[in-house]
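Support request, please re-run this one:
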Amino acid sequence: TRDWGLKVSKFSYKIRVQVEDFDESEENRNLILNRSGALVNFIGTVRGNYTTSENILSLTLEHYPQMTENEIFKIVKKANQRWSVESITVIHRVGKLFPNDKIVYIGVSSQHRQSAFDACNYIIDWLKTNAPFWKSEEFKNKKLWVDERKEDNLALKKWN
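Re-run finished. Output below.
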């Protein structure tokens, strides 16, 4: 686990890419300590089934550490430039995960709710498409690399 963090003027951020699970309640408490008026977060989990009848047994996420962290930093920085936010935390897990395991936590605190909602939504949309994670899904009799989804790329259009 590498923990990136910085406090610049009124804005602070934390980025972690890790194998270990995270405690979203603790992360939320840390963001609330800023005494912001709003806290919004997103937690992504491993789906247990696909659009087909096959169940996913596991999901493995791989990454190249510095490349991944740099890209997440760029996304967080852009969100801070677009909206008035006070603090952002992004935690992304790697390694072998199982259905219902938590994959990603994004927490955004700000003085007003709309900025927090927009920044959180922006971060997950860009994280899904631009952060360099490689995913493979394991089924009963096969293992498949996950291709990019058309829906994820379409979600980015609203931010241009």
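The helical segments are 24-32, 65-82, 113-130, 150-156. The mean pLDDT is 88.
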